[in-house]
Amino acid sequence: MPRLALYALTVCVLAVVAAVVSFTQGSWLGVLWILIAGVSSNMTWYYVRRAKVGRTAAGG
């Protein structure tokens, strides 16, 4: 897995944890964390697919 994908996945997991903590404390700020988790999840899939296409184009 590419390094940028791992970073984006880490941000996604941390954002989900932050959203859970925020919602359990009764704060609506968790909505923002859910949005950040969604964006970072999409970034993770993008970098994984881009690396897969790069390997296929390189003949591997």
Explain how this protein is built.
This protein has helices at residues 3-24, 30-57. The longest helix has 28 residues, at 30-57. The model has no long low-confidence stretch (mean pLDDT 94). It is mainly α. The chain is rod-shaped and about 50 Å long. This is Secreted protein. The chain crosses the membrane at residues 28-48. Keywords: Membrane, Transmembrane, Transmembrane helix.
**Secondary-structure-derived class:** mainly alpha
Q: Tell me the number of strands.
A: 0
Biggest pleated-sheet summary: none
Helix content: over 70%
End-to-end separation:
15 Å
The radius of gyration computed from the alpha-carbon positions, rounded to a whole number of angstroms, is: 15 Å
Number of helices: 2
Specify the overall morphology: rod-shaped
Order of helices and strands: HH
Strand content range: under 5%
Mean pLDDT: 94
Low-pLDDT residue intervals, each spanning 5 or more residues: none
What key attributes describe this structure?
mainly alpha, Secreted protein, transmembrane, rod-shaped, 83% helix, 60 residues
Topology:
Elements: H1 3-24, H2 30-57
Helix pairs in contact: 1-2
Offer a quick outline of the entry.
This protein has helices spanning 3-24, 30-57. By secondary structure, the chain is mostly helical. The model has no long low-confidence stretch (mean pLDDT 94).
